[in-house]
Write a structure and sequence with these properties.
Helix content is 4%, strand content 37%. By secondary structure, it is mainly beta. The radius of gyration is 29 Å and the shape is elongated. It has a four-stranded antiparallel beta sheet with strand order 3-10-11-12, with no helix packed on it. Strands 1-2 form a two-stranded antiparallel sheet. The protein contains one helix and twelve strands, in the order ββαββββββββββ. It folds into two domains: 36 residues, no CATH class; 143 residues, no CATH class. Strand 1 and strand 2 form a beta hairpin.
Length: 180
């Protein structure tokens, strides 16, 4: 786009610095610092949880298999799961002696997750054929905790509870790259 101002011509590039008045600034130093920044990002707004099984630690079938499915007496679903009670543990018990348990595979689902990453970067021309890129990358930008899988062993500690998170906290890194 070209703009005519009186008898002067100026080229109005996208990303060129502007003063608060809205007029173009033909200052190369200001444009080098303020103009030309690029952004990128990726977000997983919400993904549903993964299915999991409920187990019992012990060789109830006497076949040298020391982790078997639990016996299930009801669905185990709760209407409003929390990290303190993700599912109803009273619906599961030790496998009956001589069996490997009757709990179906994938009976319950773990918690869903949310993640958003963001980056801001700019390319600078240092010399003919030599470029420098400065970038700031932010992983888990909102520092949203994603709960881990519930403890799913009938005879384990904290059975039916979620005691961990499965994602790192927010990480911000600065990087520079020279290409020639």
């Amino acid at each position: 786009m070209q703009v005519v101002e009186g008898s002067r011509w100026s080229k109005g590039d996208f990303g060129q610095a502007e003063r608060l008045t809205g007029k173009r600034v033909n200052d190369d130093a200001t444009d080098a610092i303020v103009g030309g920044w690029m952004v990128s990002g990726i977000a997983t707004p919400y993904s549903s949880g993964s299915p999991f099984n409920v187990y019992y630690n012990g060789d109830t079938a006497n076949i040298d298999v020391f982790t078997v499915r639990a016996d299930q007496t009801c669905s185990g679903h709760v209407s409003n799961p929390t990290s303190a009670k993700w599912f109803d543990g009273s619906c599961f018990g030790p496998a009956t002696t001589g069996t490997v348990g009757n709990a179906r595979t994938g009976t319950l689902f773990g918690p869903g997750s949310f993640n958003a990453d963001f980056a801001v970067y700019k390319n600078f021309i240092l010399h003919e054929g030599v470029n420098f890129q400065f970038r700031t990358e932010m992983f888990n930008i909102f520092n949203h905790p994603n709960l881990g899988a519930p403890n799913n062993f009938v005879n384990g500690l904290a059975f039916g509870q979620i005691t961990s998170v499965n994602q790192i906290p927010r990480v911000i890194q600065l990087a520079g790259r020279v290409t020639f």
